[in-house]
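In this notation, each integer encodes one residue's backbone shape. One such record reads:

___
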Amino acid sequence: STDEDHLARPSALPEYLYAVFKQSSEDFLNHYFFRGNDNNSADTPIEYCGVAVVTDDDDNIIGYVEVALAAKAWIPSTATATNCIAALSIDDNTFTITTDNDLFSKIKEKAGQNLVSNDSQVYHIDKKHYHADRLPITDSVGKVVSWLWLSKDYTKQIAEERKTLLFTAILVLALFVVSMAVTVIILRKGIILPLTDIISRLTCNFNNLFSISHSVTDSSDMLAEGSSQQAASLEETAAALEEISSSASQNADRSH
């Protein structure tokens, strides 16, 4: 990177960096952090920095060395390491450095003016689906100085998810149909058939009772008819006897 890619350093160390430099002097270890523009300029990207102590032959600290990696260097490296398309946004609606300007211009159009409202989102761009994550870039004291965007073509995963959802829906539907069929079979064997048999038996018994009742009624009618005929015959016999008796009386009177 060139000098134009790096931040301008003030003559005095900013107070917010005292802690990390002090920690380096205490443990003699390298410490890494992101550093924004100390003048709060939104046009300057973020550097990835490392600090280490410089000692003399007796291990006395005689100074510090700060190594800074410009955003134009660490953004592409991050994209390669994560296999993503990377970008850096300083404010809410501006991408300063990207590995794909065209893609993030379209993401900006999709996301609207307030980019930082979308921590994780899937964008449909040019018949493809891109999954974009927004990660905060913080300095040595935890202050957010920028936002790192990592985007990846998610079209294949979306297609697989849709196939999985479709397969799951078909499987659920098939299980529902099978369960309904099993339920119908169980109900038919356990309830419907026994009820049908009971109803059939009751119907048969009712018909038998009706037949018996009808037979009894017919017999009663026949007995009644026979009794009537016998009564009529007796009446006729009595009338004949009475007529014979009357004739005999008349004949007796004539003989005297």
In short: The longest strand covers residues 128-138.
